[in-house]
Amino acid sequence: MTMEWDALLPSDAPPAGDMAAIFELLERPGVLSFAGGLPDTAGFRTAQIAAAGTEVLTRHGPESLQYSPSPGFRWFREFLSERLARRGIPAAPAELVVTAGGSQAFDLVCRAMLRPGDHVLVEAPTFLGALATLRLFPVTVHGVPVDDKGLSADQLADDLRRLRRQGIRPRFLYTIPNFQNPTGCTLTEPRRRELVRLATEWELPVLEDDAYGELGEGAPLPALKALHPAGVVFLGTFSKIFAPGLRLGWLAGPPELAQRVVGIRQSTDQCPSSFAQFLARACDTAGILDGQIEDIRTALRRRRTATLDALARYMPEEARWTRPDGGYYTWVTLPPPLDAGKLLPHVVMQQRVAYVPGAAFYPKPADGHRQLRLSYSLVEVAQIPDGIARLGTAFRSALSAR
Amino acid sequence: MTMEWDALLPSDAPPAGDMAAIFELLERPGVLSFAGGLPDTAGFRTAQIAAAGTEVLTRHGPESLQYSPSPGFRWFREFLSERLARRGIPAAPAELVVTAGGSQAFDLVCRAMLRPGDHVLVEAPTFLGALATLRLFPVTVHGVPVDDKGLSADQLADDLRRLRRQGIRPRFLYTIPNFQNPTGCTLTEPRRRELVRLATEWELPVLEDDAYGELGEGAPLPALKALHPAGVVFLGTFSKIFAPGLRLGWLAGPPELAQRVVGIRQSTDQCPSSFAQFLARACDTAGILDGQIEDIRTALRRRRTATLDALARYMPEEARWTRPDGGYYTWVTLPPPLDAGKLLPHVVMQQRVAYVPGAAFYPKPADGHRQLRLSYSLVEVAQIPDGIARLGTAFRSALSAR
Predict the structure, then answer these.
(1) Could B23 and A61 be called an inter-chain contact, meaning their C-beta atoms sit closer than 8 Å?
(2) What is A60-286's CATH topology?
(3) Is there a cis peptide before residue A170, judged by omega within 30 degrees of 0?
(4) A114: which chain B residues are within 8 Å (Cβ-Cβ)?
(5) ipTM higher than 0.85?
(6) What confidence tens digit (pLDDT) does each residue in A284-343 have?
(7) Do B262 and A20 touch (CB under 8 A)?
(8) Highest CATH level, class, for A5-45+290-400
């Protein structure tokens, strides 16, 4: 009564996810990990959230345990709409769909917009989870280079012209304008305006992933959605500011897209968690949400400073890295001939430190070999200098061994 | 700065979901609805669940608010494995994937197993949500008739032979053996054994949807997964026994499939809710889960009896209906020339009662016009006789008007 399942399953399955490898590194005991993109729940206002959760279950027990409407509760979408309006982002409740985190929002938009053989544009490098999602469809992914000022609008214009000559019209551009994953860079305001001008001219839909948008310092730059409401789908999440364990995010698109997404949603996980919606609103009402965001910002600022200081002290002289104004990440470029991917097993085993090699973030796996992402979101300030020093030791010794 | 989104979106989108129409009927004020498949949260042990939730957030706050591993926590899969073993269902932790409800489990298995142009077998009629999911891929869906004893194994054998002559090998059979949605019928034990024999002979993977399996009376029949562990993917959910608002379900497949599903899962909503896993286990440990299942069983038995009594009293003489031993549904066949779909708007507006027309549950929309699904899960016993009487009035008057 055995069955040959491997023979029964389609042979075109994408390779096992890079995320699995990252989670495995994270779980290796005794390794100081700069690899994952997880928030530090030790900094969460857990006791206050627990009190709010108790109140939700006591006052709204039956509703919070029942199915939610597929797009999310109307009152929750109104709450999101008001929250986004405070940042100048226009999104009516009918344009909002509540999702199981930002990744599901991206997957649902892809299911609504993509068909096999389509083409899409992403930043190079970009969020590796988005690349993994795009491999499911499958589509051809074109990378547009990112520098310290974010996505290059000039390069985007060139790429659009080149693709048009080949008869290719990309379905959308996926971009992370704020504290980008993995580079930590932020798209400058002139480039935002130039990008929106191009998107309008080319009728190119833009997917704006804002996972880290509220975790920055100083006055935030205008969202692409604020500059170009009709052409931008905004992807948001509570995973970095509130509680990823609740699975709560959203998308704000034009109503035509929101409607299609809801139709698909009904055929996948049906609806978002009711309890999560009740709890997030209760924590907002009680001021817990904004207080926690402030706490997270402060912690990230300290960790960022400690990381940049340690990099200046311990990295080989020829190495370069980005200087983020918010978010989780800095992006390190090693001098040749170092290869961040080939060095990783050695660094983990010998120096007990982990990072994500740069190649994982490129649509073409051949790119980014000298680069790596450091995430300081989960590493305490006191541990950072020693961790970066150990990284520096590994890289210096690899350099001197050449 | 407007954009023509309808022109930018693919033109092959499936029609707007039937589920949306059902939810709309449910929300119409003053209508007694036998339409939806929702549990009655008024019967939930909400105060006890609230106490367990408080304890989880107090004792496991940071972990329950953090991301979960993509397949679900190891300890939660061990808990599921033990729970399933008590029902004779073999499922090792490495074969289990925790999902956002049973619908997501089905969607993930479809994403792992189906490619455009594939063929699948389902019961006719079957769960309309599964039909909507299959339309997303898209695949050709073949319906195998269901009668009072469940899926017809003879008919399945005929269909498999007929398809083979056409060079078609279905990717899987999707079946709901217990208290089937929509008919309420249960696959008999001889037919289970015959079905498993056929599945083995034809190397046909079976997807066993057990949404209602714990909501029956008397000793349960052996699960297909228990009879044929290597060939059956078992789809389970907490939505009907615990709390749909937490979005918690699972699948138990062979390890090859579970691994592929986890890879896809990382590219959609990444992981199940950590809080939901903590809360479900806490409620099991405290005896709340099994107690609540007993409460739900008792309530459903009373509602079932009231529904069958009222049908005998108020339906036109030529009408027929099924006699479920558990679950939510009875399936009514009206005498010709009545058309349940055409009558529905009249019944809702005039008699203020709602049901789901039978055609929604068939792969071929032309089928099932004389049939309809009544769900008694959300209707209180005291309301049932009057509701069914109003249905009877509508049908009798339509019959006498012919």
Answers:
(1) no
(2) Aspartate Aminotransferase; domain 2 (3.40.640)
(3) no
(4) 10
(5) yes
(6) 999 999 999 999 999 999 999 999 999 999 999 999 999 999 999 999 999 999 999 999
(7) yes
(8) alpha beta
